[in-house]
Amino acid sequence: MSVKVHSPNVVYSEDCIESRYEYNTTSVSVNSDGSYSAVPRSNTLLFKTDTCVPKLGMMLVGLGGNNGTTVTAGILANKYNMCWNTKEGEKKPNYFGSITQAGTVGLGMNARGEEVHVPFNDLIPMVHPNDIEIDGWDISSMNMADAMERARVLDYALQKQLRPHLEKMVPRPSIYCPDFIAANQGTRADNVLSGTKQEMMQKIREDIRDFKEKKNLDKVIVLWTANTERFCDVKEGLNTSAEELLNSIQQNEEEVSPSSIFAVASILEGCTYINGSPQNTFVPGVIELAEMEGVYIAGDDFKSGQTKYKSVLVDFLVGAGIKPVSIVSYNHLGNNDGKNLSSPKQFRSKEISKSNVVDDMVESNKVLYPDSKKPDHTVVIKYVPYVADSKRAMDEYISEIFMNGTNTIVCHNTCEDSLLASPLILDLVILAELCERITVQLDQEPQARRFNSILSILSYLLKAPLVPAGTPVVNALFKQRSCIENIIKACIGLQPGNHMLLEHKIGAPMQQGFAMSTAPNLAKHCTTNPTKMNGKHQHIIGQNHGHMKTPSQ
């Protein structure tokens, strides 16, 4: 942590940061005549963040898959600073794609009126990926070095360096219920638990305790990065309450999915559980159990490529007053995820998570969508073994524009699937652990609150964000990232970032020591290249769309 806030509202002590924060909102009501009444509201909150970074363990369900091997290999390559050669020259390890490790945040303005950006992880103490211990389960017994080679993700020169570190790592036996994943996964299933679902759940709990004890860990977070399951039934008597679900596991009910068993085991061990696939792991009984135990859960489905792009583009179009009416998304991929998704039931889980991403953006604009009718939205996924982990995503967006015109945008995106998903796994685990160290107290309340058991703060990283009951679902990417950034800023007593830049708009200093130019901005009146004016008011005006203006123009 290299940022320290100097304010009477922020107190740094040996083991925590306390911040007194004004949370400003606006309450809106609709009047009988259809007009709106808006009332600004303000609440004083006390944020308290434990600054003691724990020794953290990450257990992956699907450790031997493409994501599991790639994220493990990436951590080791960074930890030991492994460099390797390709035909483009020497390459060095990095954590690109991770907002906590490679993202920056606008901190404020310096004395010259320039915005200062700092690394995300400089704001508040966070676990570093290099320090995370890794373990997990997989239905395949293949050691991690061979599994990495099977995945065909990393350059071979790097794989050779990683092999000695990975070949002794073998996943723990996992839960295999053939009805929940595609039949084509059966050939990999040589490392599976036996017994009843109750017995398998107990074994998962023992594995978590064993890992924590052997590595002397303070915390463990469990994350599902295994195959997409089909949706399970949700019905009374089976899983609509914690009691029903625990009884169903005890009675070995067929319709209790492996991912829900892992979630229950994690919750009962007090470990945050994150679902990186699209299936409905979090049935009502799992959610209720998490709330009863005070344990965090988050999901669903990593948002790494096509859907992330979609959540940006549709937000842009709707925000610009352009009306998307048709969105067609096609994918083909050749990794084991694609092979599993070639089964219709598993594909349906993925189709649902990829299709709901535009809903909140449509609801935000009643001018464009007065009847709330959503755009036609189709998602296609095909399995093409040759392309391996290098997924192709092709999209067509058709929109209605001014005076009944139409606009069509077509894009092609080559997504290196696991190389995009692995940094998300790290961010999910690191930010979830940070949330465990934060409490918030309302000024008038005697006790501090923790975040809701459903960590909707992590929505930025997930396709189909799970949110607490009654909470709006936000899919727009900028809003999701701002949520994470502004909550962390609140922990250190800083206001949310805004982009008004009033200091420059009105030409008046608004902070002590702030240098503000008093020269009028006359760039729009320039008739020659402003960069050749001998230092006189050198305002850049974008070269007038690439053409130099002459006095006659």
Key attributes of the depicted protein:
553 residues; disordered C terminus; four-stranded antiparallel sheet; 18 strands; alpha/beta; 16 helices; six-stranded parallel sheet
Task: Explain what you see.
This protein has 553 residues and is an alpha/beta fold. Helix content is 30%, strand content 22%. It contains 16 helices and 18 strands. The strands form 5 sheets. A 6-stranded parallel β-sheet has the order 10-9-4-11-12-13, with helices on both faces. Strands 1-2-3-18 form a 4-stranded antiparallel β-sheet, with no helix packed on it. Helix 1 packs across helix 3 (144-151) and helix 6 (242-250) packs across helix 8 (284-293). The protein starts with 9 loop residues before the first strand and ends in a 7-residue tail after the last helix. The model is unreliable at 522-553 (pLDDT under 50).
* Strand tally: 18
Radius of gyration, in Å, reads 26 Å
Strand content: 15-25%
Termini separation comes to 54 Å
**What is the makeup of the main sheet?**
6 strands, parallel
* Secondary-structure class: alpha/beta
**Helical amount among residues, as a percent range?**
25-40%
The spatial strand order of the largest sheet comes to: 10-9-4-11-12-13
Q: What general form does the structure show?
A: globular
Tell me the number of helical segments per DSSP (H or I, 4 or more residues long).
Answer: 16
- Mean pLDDT equals 89
- Residue stretches low in confidence (pLDDT < 50, at least 5 long) are 522-553
Give the SSE map.
Blueprint: E1 10-12, E2 16-30, E3 36-50, E4 56-61, H1 66-79, E5 84-86, E6 89-91, H2 99-102, E7 104-109, E8 115-119, E9 133-138, H3 144-151, H4 156-166, E10 172-173, H5 197-214, E11 219-224, H6 242-250, H7 258-268, E12 273-275, H8 284-293, E13 297-298, H9 306-319, E14 323-333, H10 336-341, H11 344-355, H12 359-363, E15 376-383, E16 390-401, E17 405-416, H13 417-435, E18 438-442, H14 477-491, H15 502-505, H16 543-546
Parallel strand pairs: 4-9, 4-11, 9-10, 11-12, 12-13, 14-15
Antiparallel strand pairs: 1-2, 2-3, 3-18, 5-6, 7-8, 14-16, 16-17
